[in-house]
Amino acid sequence: MDRVLLRWIALFWLTAMVKGLQVTVPDKKKVAMLFQPTVLRCHFSTSSHQPAVVQWKFKSYCQDRMGESLGMSSTRAQSLSKRNLEWDPYLDCLDSRRTVRVVASKQGSAITLGDFYRGREITIVHDADLQIGKLMWGDSGLYYCIITTPDDLEGKNEDSVELLVLE
């Protein structure tokens, strides 16, 4: 009897895992040119029959990434990241130590830009890709694709891509 119960629990668990919300960003890092357009891709799958809400959030670097790009990173950051290979001094810090803002949201066909991005050529295309018309210096940072559905609460609902804007 216990084996039958365990099998049913395992089957239920596996079914829930397959049907859960899954968000993936195919490119974890993207380098793009200043004043050029770019698209940050985001894919998701859900078992929900309700329309998903798509939101893109921006998080600035914890430290200036341009110094590293030009070969001028700090020795303190280098020594700390050598001690802990999983820790990145540019990406890993509390949100209270960096700028965090909503770039755009999409619900159905309605797209709303965050206050900071109003007036810029930014939209969400396809299901969840963020399209930016002209990149600015301040666009370098982490972008989070966050998907919310009212009835699919299991799984992974966000993923991120690092965008580095170069001249």
TrEMBL record:
**PANTHER family named in the record:** IMMUNOGLOBULIN-LIKE DOMAIN-CONTAINING RECEPTOR 2, TRANSMEMBRANE AND IMMUNOGLOBULIN DOMAIN-CONTAINING PROTEIN
UniProt key word Repressor = no
What InterPro entries does the entry give? Ig-like_dom_sf, Ig-like_domain-LISCH7, Ig-like_fold, Ig_sub
Q: What is this protein called?
A: Immunoglobulin like domain containing receptor 2
> One GO CC term of this entry?
membrane
Instruction: Recite the UniProt keywords alphabetically.
Output: Signal
In which organism is this protein found? Answer: Aotus nancymaae
According to the entry, every stretch annotated as the Immunoglobulin domain falls at 27-166
Please state the span of the N-terminal signal peptide per the UniProt entry: 1-20
Biological processes per GO annotation: pancreas development
